[in-house]
Hints:
With 201 residues, the chain is an alpha/beta fold. 24% of the residues lie in helices and 30% in strands.
Amino acid sequence: MLIKQLKTSHLENFTYIIGSSTRVVAAVIDPAGTPSAILNEARNAGLIVQYILCTHHHYDHTEGVDAIKDATGAKVLMHEKDAALYHGDVDIIVHQDDTLQLGDVIVFIIHTPGHTPGGICFLAEGNLFTGDTLFVGDSGRTDLPGGHRPTLGASIRRLMELPDDTVVWPGHDYGPMQKSTLQWEKRNNVNAREYGFYVEE
Length: 201
């Protein structure tokens, strides 16, 4: 599986390009910042962007959606509860946990409300793209409209049921490193004890 992690926003957002290692199809996760930089990265890698996957509706994660859709014809995917709050059109509305076929890669869509009502994470071949649900060493804020801290805690506990070696790819570069694992989060995340997923070394 191919993964490109890009930081093109002044808000420390990460955008991801993911795709099949055997085919040229790809998806962009949370296009933030400069769409031209994202498109150039995909073109240079010889990738055809078929989907735009949105972990949630907030502007800093969706500001490049329209430009990338116009340039590629890619379909936009979002959970129904966030699609209702989004300013643009959504082509694929997810109502619950679902899957998406991306070439020979299966992307599992996990509903993780708490930061927003329709927050979702994407799991593909041991890689977890967490948006603003889970950061490296921290979690998303819940003081914005639609946020709810106990709900976010429940969502993160659900993620912690995945294998310890699952790689965490966050929506912002807020931590001591740009990616982690669920095992690392269980030992080091500042919310681990509050949310009930802490484990000893």
